[in-house]
Amino acid sequence: MIRLKRTHNCGDITREDIGKEVILNGWVNDMRKLGNLIFVTLRDRSGFIQIVFDPRVSIQAHNIAKDVRKEYVLAIKGKVKERPEGTINPAYKTGELEVAAIDIEVLNTSKTPPIYVNRDNRTDEDLRLRYRYLDLRRRSMQKNLIQRHKIVQSARAYLNENSFIEVETPILTRSTPEGARDFLVPWRGKPGYCFALPQSPQLFKQLLMIGGLERYYQFARCFRDEDLRADRQLEFTQIDIEMSFVEVEDILSITEGMVKRVFKDVLNKEIDIPLNRLQYSEAMDRYGSDKPDRRYGHELIDLTDVFCNTTFKIFRNTIGSNGVIKALKVENDLAFSRSAIDDLEDAVKEVGAKGLIWMKFENNGVRSPIARFLSAAEIESMKERCSSSNGDILFIVAGDRSIVNTALGMIRGTLISKLPDPEETFDILWVLNFPFVEWDKEENRYKAEHHPFTMPNLEEFKRYKDTDPLKIGSLTYDLVINGVEMGSGSIRINTPQLQREVFELLSIKEREAEKRFGFLLEALEYGAPPHGGVAIGIDRLVMLMTGNRSIRNVTAFPKTKSGFDPLTNAPSKVSEKQLKELHIRIIE
Length: 588
Hints:
This protein is α+β, with helices and mostly antiparallel strands. It has 16 helices and 22 strands. The two termini are 52 Å apart.
């Protein structure tokens, strides 16, 4: 039993409480002694308040306070008063006030924490995750999770107001691999068979539309066995949305309304809608990325026509084979050393480019490995086209348009990583009409760019299905915020005939399609309405809205970069008895 049960939160004490007797519960954030006085900063989720232990007020409370240490859990009874002149702490909203302690109860003691709790510092991340329950006491972590809560509640309220129904879909389902690897779950009830954890509720939300729900949403847990990075975890949460009797515009509109509502509710920031839109082809041509961060400018510059009459063999051959020559300008070199340029050249070769050409303008001249092969007129035209000044460097790639865009887009990403983030700026846009398929060299077949249930552009599908599938577009859309893919969606295929044709294009044979997706194909036979949807990554949205660079800072209990949980030591080996029940034998 708590003898002193709180009447107020630490951070909610105001000037109106002066003279009142209050009871506070919380942790010792820090403490200090000044003569006979002991000062303790008490902390709870709401904030901080200074407690003063004065032997003239309560000798008993003062004596107990002598033995208190950081992170002890206390209950304090005392009277609120103004701080003496000159002792105000503007860092706290209660900085003008303090509580003169009358009584104290030590609810629990604490060992010295292995990480700092009362301030942010560069503690090793693995150590922070090992003691995550202590890391969560830090104000920045609590603020992140409170913002996450607000974002979720705002989105949920918006969807409820727009006639959506929240429905939970299964976590244990069947494996339908097409993209990332599935997490498999063996079951003792049927040895040799496995459930799979859902990569997304894709098939189930389509079945809900076939079931007549018309407007569905879910804050869905998703699981993908893929390599981790700052904005990716093995398990994550997305706002999953599906709607019937809609076209692309309807889904964009409802999503934009939700984004506008969330930014207003949580950050009090107005977002102008409709949002900007870019076609996929335009995004790649201008930025070399299907998720461009436009806050920095630095668009790719097409120089192909500059060299239409060139004698430089590489450029002449490129143009002759319908390739392009494009450049990225970097102002004042931005500390790209020669070794850094060599690293960039190795990187662009990995994405298929034959090489990287650099050209630096200096002292009204130019320095480049190819300068002697170009005419003065060509160099001047390049300088004018790129608006280059002394100190600027151009990175130039020649070849197939797709490869050139990807290579320069990668360099642009490296450049952006060297630049400071624009403060409190959000670049939000849609990227539309992605390619329907891509060619997988390893599997020697076409694979869905989005997923196999995406609606193709029907006219292009009929025209190019048998001749050039790479020319087929799709009814797809990605929501991009500050260069991060925040959400993705599409109109879905709603007829079994078209779905079977798409499976055929993707080299998914009829027997395999029935085995993996038979329940969906059967459902499509029973009057599936036109439908589509979108999924927004909650972890990434919270990361950006709180100004973080990693979703591990906005997730209560994340994994490390290697997928390990140092708090629970997961994953771990299981006993032979458990394996035997599942009819599993580990082969070393």
